[in-house]
């Protein structure tokens, strides 16, 4: 899987690709990345990439020409191109799974008030919103999308870890504990020290139900009873 990211701030993304599990995946050749600085495609000597919106209004808009040239340089029109934006469809695990099947994804990091609509019309396949809030950095939104996808790619993390996770079957995860057995008078639940595997599985499932009902009534209401009892 290759991530090609168009950004005005490549350094924000570079540190992610150079750390932790992602770094290992890149070193193993499981993940490739290409960070494209949009400013390199600006047309004037000041390397201008933004301008005031037609029709007035607050803020600045990312100009079409530098973005289009940057997109052309990576042949974005024949690749799956994703634009994280608060105006997109809600980004979910299902979309991450679908995108993880692609060989390459091109991401556009927005800034300011947004990007020229003609870029969306001409190049973008998916406009995705990572949550019902607004952040100022399109790089952060792109990182969320990249992180959710790369970990699903073969060989990056174990199948077992993926299978146990929240959202795989619409229940949240059970609580985790590690040593020490007592921390600030808080003891690890006895059941987890019992060695009784079947009872641990049952306890964990109960905790998942409890947590989902409490923290995510929206998921709970949509969860069918048969699967809940499993
Ligand atoms: N850019 C700013 N806020 C965003 C959001 N909630 N989702 C995707 N991209 C964004």
TrEMBL record:
The EC number(s) this enzyme carries: 2.1.1.228
Q: What are the recorded Gene Ontology BP terms?
A: tRNA N1-guanine methylation
Give the principal location in a single coarse category.
cytoplasm
Classification via SUPFAM superfamilies: alpha/beta knot
GO terms, molecular function: tRNA (guanine(37)-N1)-methyltransferase activity
| CDD domains registered for this protein in UniProt | TrmD-like
- Gene Ontology cellular component? cytosol
Question: Which residues are noted in the entry as S-adenosyl-L-methionine-binding?
Answer: 110, 130-135
Places the protein is found: Cytoplasm
Q: Where is the tRNA methyltransferase TRMD/TRM10-type domain?
A: 1-221
Q: Which domain of life is it from?
A: Bacteria
Q: Which UniProt keywords apply?
A: Cytoplasm, Methyltransferase, S-adenosyl-L-methionine, Transferase, tRNA processing
InterPro entries given in the database record:
Alpha/beta_knot_MTases, tRNA_m1G_MeTrfase_C_sf, tRNA_m1G_MeTrfase_TrmD, tRNA_m1G_MTases_N, tRNA_MeTrfase_TRMD/TRM10
Describe the reaction catalysed, as an equation. guanosine(37) in tRNA + S-adenosyl-L-methionine = N(1)-methylguanosine(37) in tRNA + S-adenosyl-L-homocysteine + H(+)
Q: Which Pfam families does the UniProt record give? A: tRNA_m1G_MT
Task of the protein: Specifically methylates guanosine-37 in various tRNAs.
Give the family this protein belongs to, as stated in its UniProt record: Belongs to the RNA methyltransferase TrmD family.
The family database entries (NCBIfam families) matched by this protein are listed as:
PRK00026.1, trmD
Indicate the quaternary assembly.
Homodimer.
Q: What is this protein called?
A: tRNA (guanine-N(1)-)-methyltransferase
Q: Which organism is it from?
A: Oceanispirochaeta crateris
The uppermost taxa in this organism's lineage are: Bacteria, Pseudomonadati, Spirochaetota, Spirochaetia, Spirochaetales
């Amino acid at each position: 899987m290759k991530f090609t990211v168009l950004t005005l701030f490549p350094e924000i993304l570079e540190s992610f690709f150079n750390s932790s599990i992602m770094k290992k995946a890149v070193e193993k050749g499981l993940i490739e990345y290409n960070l494209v600085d949009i400013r390199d495609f600006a047309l004037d000597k000041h390397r201008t990439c933004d301008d005031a919106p037609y029709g007035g209004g607050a803020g600045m808009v990312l100009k079409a020409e530098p973005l289009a040239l940057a997109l052309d340089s990576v042949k974005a029109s024949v690749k799956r191109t994703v634009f994280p934006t608060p105006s997109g469809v809600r980004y979910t695990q299902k979309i991450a799974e679908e995108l993880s099947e692609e060989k390459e994804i091109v991401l556009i990091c927005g800034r300011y008030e947004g990007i020229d609509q003609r870029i969306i019309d001409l190049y973008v396949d998916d406009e995705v919103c990572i949550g019902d809030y607004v952040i100022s950095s399109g790089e952060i939104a792109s990182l969320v999308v990249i992180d959710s996808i790369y970990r699903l790619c073969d060989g990056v993390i174990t199948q077992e870890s993926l299978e146990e996770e929240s959202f795989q079957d619409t229940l949240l995860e059970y609580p985790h504990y590690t040593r020490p057995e007592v921390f600030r008078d808080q003891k690890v639940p006895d059941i987890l020290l019992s060695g009784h595997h079947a009872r641990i599985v049952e306890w964990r499932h109960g905790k998942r139900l409890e947590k989902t009902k409490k923290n995510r009534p929206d998921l709970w209401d949509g969860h069918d009873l048969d699967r809940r009892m499993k």
